[in-house]
Structures are given as C-alpha cells and as structure tokens.
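**Folding the chain**
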Amino acid sequence: MMGDDVFDQLVPVFMDSTEKLLDDLFEAAEKNDPVQVHLLAHSIKSASANVGAMRMSDLASALETRVSQSDLNKLPESVRELREMFEGVCDVLKQA
C-alpha cells in the first residue's frame, strides 16, 4: 500500500494532469477523433485507478471500450459525465 507522503504528492499531480487530459478528451470528442479519445480515455482510466477512483476509472474504461467498438454516439456527453465524476473525486481527495 502507498504511504501517506507518496499519496499526498500524487494527488496534486493527478488533479493537474487529469484536468488537462479531460480538456484534450473533450476536444477530441468534439472533433470525433476516435484514436485520440481512446488514448486519452485509457490515460484517464489508469490515472484514476492510481488514486483509487475506481468508479471514474470504470467510466473511462467504458468510454475506451465504446470507442474501440466504433460507438461514437454521445461522445461529448460521455466526456461531460467523466468530468463531473472527476470534480467529485477532486472534492473527496481534497478532504482526505
């Protein structure tokens, strides 16, 4: 298990990098770019799992799977849902 000091250092990195990934993901979804959406969703899935945000990781994984199956319906809405989840995760992590 990760020590508190390492986790405390990981949280701000997660917040900053995932914010950027989500911005890029929204842009890729708006452009209907499945390759970028897939790559970014994969990165978000992994980053979320690293901080224990498993529901967020699962949501990113589901988006990654849908895109890999050429299901591009409602990409912007899915990204907004992921961002809302991210905001909730950040709120919880700030209190930890």
